[in-house]
Amino acid sequence: MIKPFFCWALLFAAAPAWAVEFWISPQGNDANPGTRERPFASLARARDAVRSAPQRGREPVTVTLREGVYRLPETLVFTPADSGSSNAPVVWRAAAGQTVVISGGVELHGLRWRPYR
């Protein structure tokens, strides 16, 4: 009787805490819930979702960015509270095998460049 109980106790003790996950995609929508199937569009929206997650500080939070260019229309500000804790960190990462660019620059279209002199 003790052995089965001990095995179950070890199983649950070794199981990781349920992590909170948010997803972002350039083709997403900030009205979405931030899931893999319905990602957010902006880093600011994901940051705000992390801040308001009830599990923040108790469980790890992962924000995964899908491939693409993320243009920042304004400064994206993070505070120490946005980093989580050693037991429940907040991790921002690119999706596996994908390339992500975060740009504060403005894309210029339709200009006709010519030499200065």
Output the structural class: alpha/beta
Unreliable residue stretches = 6-15
CATH class: Alpha Beta
Separation of termini?
90 Å
Strand order of the largest sheet: 1-2-4
Shape: elongated
Number of strands: 5
Examine the coordinates and then state which fold CATH places here, giving the name of the CATH topology: so0334 like fold
* Number of helical segments with 4 or more residues: 2
Average predicted local confidence, pLDDT? 87
Taken as a percent bin, the fraction of beta residues is: 15-25%
Domain count: the total is 1
Please trace the helix and strand order, writing H or E for each element: HEHEEEE
- The Rg value, from CA coordinates, equals 20 Å
Main sheet? Answer: 3 strands, parallel
Q: Determine the fraction of residues in helical runs and give it as a percent range.
A: 10-25%
Q: Which architecture does the CATH hierarchy give at level 2? A: 2-Layer Sandwich
Could you explain how this protein is built, in words?
By secondary structure, the protein is an alpha/beta fold. It has a single domain, classed as 2-Layer Sandwich (so0334 like fold), CATH 3.30.1910. Helix content is 20%, strand content 20%. It contains two helices and five strands. The protein has a three-stranded parallel beta sheet, with helices on one face. The longest helix is centred in the first third of the chain and has 13 residues, at 2-14. The protein is elongated. Mean pLDDT is 87; it is low at 6-15.
